[in-house]
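REQUEST ID: PR-0412
SUBMITTED BY: lab tech R.K.
PRIORITY: routine
TASK: structure prediction, single protein chain
INPUT:
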Amino acid sequence: MKFSNLFFTFTLILILNGFIIFKTPANSFHDDKLQQTTNLVKANNKFITLLGTQVDVGQKAPDFKVVNASFAPVTLSQFSGKSILISVVPSLDTGVCSVQTKRFNDEITHLPEEFVMLTISNDLPFAQKRFCKTENIDKLVVLSDSVWRDFGKNYGLLIKDMGLLTRAILIIDSSGIIAYKEIVADISKHPDYELALSTMKALSPVEVLTQKK
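STATUS: complete
OUTPUT:
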């Protein structure tokens, strides 16, 4: 077999394998049994459909499984006992998502160490890793829901027929209860940073000193 033919065959195998690897997770969210929400979020002034179970403030936060930059599984339960802000974005490589991620990366430095901030998107871990390196995102925990769509389905944030997550902010307190939820009504707009941050700061333990008589 000539080298050119061998190279072509090898390349074709790689392409087909890559297609199979990434096709399966991408199709996993096409599930007719998932709850559909049609009146929460607009894109281009039209409502989009969100797939998955909506969560409410005051309920126990559902666990989920995502992956980090090395494709290692990460679950919510791994952060048990901590207050967690989850910044959800459609794609890190877009303007608003980039600003949102950089804003929270800066803000985490002003919070106690027992607080955690996560950014979750359906970008592949390779793209997330490149973005973090380029933009110096080194304080947030950036995670991908691209493999199982588990986070999106468990929190009702998966956009039907797009495979992306809608823009949202969630805060989970140290006892695992959802303390704050914002699903941004227009996917192209920013979330309410100040309200989310003030809610997060309110979860910080306060030490009261009683003056001795």
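NOTES: Residues 45 and 186 are 8 Å apart (CA to CA).
REVIEWED BY: pending
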